[in-house]
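subagent[fold] <- orchestrator: predict structure for attached chain, return tokens only, no commentary.
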Amino acid sequence: MRPAILFLVCVLQFGTYFAYDAPASLNIQLQKYLGLEYAEWQFVLGQLFVMYSLPNTFLPFFGGKLTDRFGCRLVLLFFCLATLTGQVMVNIGLFVKEVKLVLLVLDAFTSKMGSIANAFLSPLIDRHFGIEVAIMGPTIAYPTPSNLSHLPYEFWIVCTTFILFTGPYYCFNNTALDFLVSKYYPNDTVSAGFAMSVPMTVSTSLLTVSGTTLSTSTHSKSIYLVFSFLAITAVHIFLGFTALSPIVPFIALGTAGAINLTLMYPFVNHVIRRHEARAVESVSMLGMAYGVCVCLQNVVLVVIPLCVAWILTNGQQDMRRWEHLELFFASLSVLGAAGALWLYRIEQMEID
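subagent[fold] -> orchestrator:
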């Protein structure tokens, strides 16, 4: 039974990410299908990803509460149906070629999700924390006995490093097809789509290997993060300012992604567990810490697509706009490397 459940959960994840990445992999085709100008389409594309990420800037805070109250099966079924409903609505809007309808549906659907979450959560908040806290729920959006100030500063470094990885890795994928067709594969979306799949394919293939290797390594784990971010920086500089094949840089990007994905969540667990061990009061903060990471990651997924759209449509022509975009992603990676270096310094101070 357990292998079957694991398989079905993987299928659910596959479907969710397949739906999420569909606008990115059909970037150029959708622009032509909808008959939009390039500048208008870039902002529409950004808004599609923004609408997806908005609910996830607050819902992860409450996921544990919902699961505790209603059980994982019911909660999983509800959100799967919600995902299916949203995807059907988007398909209807695209079928009639009304992009405004798509955005309106997504906006309304996002608002309804907030209403549903409120209906679930407000009675729970009232029961456990009183009406005074429940009525403030929409304002403070975080009704738990602990607050964010209890989280150690090391956690915020890890969290910042984590979200800096989101832009150069995940958000880059949103416009990768357009970039590849513009620079490497003119009028060939199939070859561009194949190249676009390389980083995720490499990353997925290496996750088991990187997990095993890094978990048994005697070296500082954070130093691997430093080199990973530096590799991502080099990849984006390479893509933006050379005309050589993107395949090798994409393999490097996937490898760096596997390292980041292997280490980020364990780092959160490490710094929180260590802080809890030193604390005078025994208060569990790990769930809250993971919730904060996921919510902030989705805040970045709201902001960066709009920044990308602005960069691509801000008066630059031809390849210059892609150079500026790759420089933007490289800059985020440099900041990520600085955060990872700070983590390395903290690790060395603990050893000393």
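orchestrator: received. Logging for downstream: The longest helix spans residues 247-278. The chain has 14 helices and no strands.
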